[in-house]
Design a protein that fits this description.
mainly alpha; about 160 residues; about 0% strand
């Protein structure tokens, strides 16, 4: 009985070892076939790979052109606002001179009225001219502030309400 168990155990052990060796041999064969298939696969998919590369290049070129467009638009916006601010600065200086001249004219009209040389209508007309010039100066100043805000936004700035 002892012999039978020993022989049975030995036969089972040999069968198990044979199974393990067979699995290893099949695994190596499978690995070799997988390696061969992976080496040959790019040959059969070369057209698809080339098309994928071309598509990626086209997407890159499209992104690059979009970026260029965005940068050029930003430069244009900044340049436009700087130009507008420069123009409004010169207009503001001219309008300040106009306000000063109108104020001086109004003072002279008031003095002449007090001296009895002109009617009060001349004083009112001079005051209207002062108010008109001051209103124009305020409009120019407001436009300068708006253009400054647009410039800050064009430069990438912003703000939040707190």
């Amino acid at each position: 009985m002892f012999t039978w168990w020993y022989i049975n155990w030995t036969a089972d052990t040999v069968a198990t070892h044979m199974h393990i060796l067979a699995q290893a041999a099949i695994g190596q064969a499978r690995s070799a076939m997988t390696l061969a298939a992976s080496a040959v696969a790019p040959v059969f998919t070369a057209g698809r790979l080339h098309a994928g590369v071309q598509q990626a290049r086209a997407a890159y070129q499209g992104s690059l052109l979009q970026f260029e467009k965005t940068v050029l638009t930003s430069y244009k916006e900044v340049e436009d606002q700087l130009s507008a601010l420069q123009y409004l600065k010169s207009q503001s200086q001219l309008q300040s001179l106009a306000v000063a001249d109108a104020t001086r004219s109004e003072q002279l009209a008031t003095q002449r009225f007090k001296a009895g040389l002109v009617s009060y209508l001349d004083v009112v007309t001079a005051q209207q001219e002062v108010l008109f010039n001051e209103r124009t100066a305020a409009q120019i100043s407001g436009q300068r502030l708006l253009d400054t805000v647009v410039l800050v936004k064009a430069l990438g700035g912003g703000w939040t309400r707190s």
